[in-house]
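Progress against Task 2.4 (sequence-to-structure conversion) is shown through the following example record, which the project officer requested during the mid-term review.
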Amino acid sequence: MFDLPRLTSVFLTFILFYTVSGMATVTAQSSGFQTQEDLSLNEDQKSPTAAFVRSLVLPGWGHFYAGKQYQTRGAVHLGTDVVLLGSIFGFNIRANRIENDFVTFANLNAGVDLSSRDRSFRLAVADFNSLDDYNDYQLRTRNWNRLIEDTPENSWNWQDSDARNRYSDMRSDSDRIRNQIPALAGIMVVNRIISAISAYNKVRSEIESTSKNRAELAIVPVMNEISNSRSYPEISGAAARIKIRF
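Structure tokens generated for the chain above:
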């Protein structure tokens, strides 16, 4: 048989419990405190991991996500990335232009087309006045595996050493510029990592600062122990528990 008075008492106690809990939450929020539920909500809104990933994708994005007070730092990382990216494109365009110049120069002054030739062949053209001089040197040094077949498309003959040296300088300039591109790309990666770590720490510090000096208030029911005459516990009241962080 159900004990209707006891069940009614339990029902009314739980209603009182949730009513007091709701009032306590409102009071805590209005007085500058936050419950654990509110604190979890803030953590979901500003996630350190989300800030980290954003800045890895686009430097500075995580700082804009962290808050307005960090936008200046974010703009620095974003601006650095834009400058580096522009430098890479600029260096690549300049290297291509110089390459086109020395290919045209070699065609006009040495009679050889370098547009589709590899780096080793271009180096041979820069170091020797003709194909005969190159092969003769390889034979004397017994580097038979480096010999170049004597065909019209492989043949070159510089008009003078000055022209060959000018070609060599242009080819060296192109290589030097291209060698700087990986370094710029590496700096872009470092900028992303620094931005990501910084954004992560900014959001984390915001979470720690907002959770400091806050109280967590909870209202819990108080149960009586089960006696021989009762088959279920009886709620005798409610107790307030508060945690204060310093």
